[in-house]
Amino acid sequence: MLPLQLPLQIKGQTFALIDADQSAVGGIVVDDKALGLRRTLRNQAVMAFGQAG
C-alpha cells in the first residue's frame, strides 16, 4: 500500500494523523491544489483541537 499521511501536531507533538492509502500503485495522485486543500484541512483540525484543549 502507498499511504498519504499528514500528521497533526501541537507544539511539536503529534496527536493524530490524517491517513489515506490505496492498494494499487499510482492509486493516489495528489496535485498541488489537492495537497494544499488537505493541508488546509489538517491546519483547521489542529486549530480546533488547540482551542478545545
Helix content: 25-40%
Strand tally: 2
What percent strand? 35-45%
What do the pLDDT scores average to? 80
Query: How far is it from the N-terminal to the C-terminal residue, by CA?
Result: 34 Å
Question: How many domains make up the 3D coordinates?
Answer: 1
What spatial order of strands do you see in the largest sheet?
Answer: 1-2
Element layout with pairings:
Elements: E1 2-10, E2 13-22, H1 32-52
Antiparallel strand pairs: 1-2
What features would you describe in this structure?
With 53 residues, this protein is α+β, with helices and mostly antiparallel strands. It has one domain. Helix content is 40%, strand content 36%. A two-stranded antiparallel sheet has the order 1-2. Strand 1 and strand 2 form a beta hairpin. The longest helix has 21 residues. The radius of gyration is 13 Å and the shape is elongated. It starts with a strand and ends with a helix. The mean pLDDT is 80.
For this entry, give a set of tags.
single chain, 53 residues, alpha+beta, two-stranded antiparallel sheet
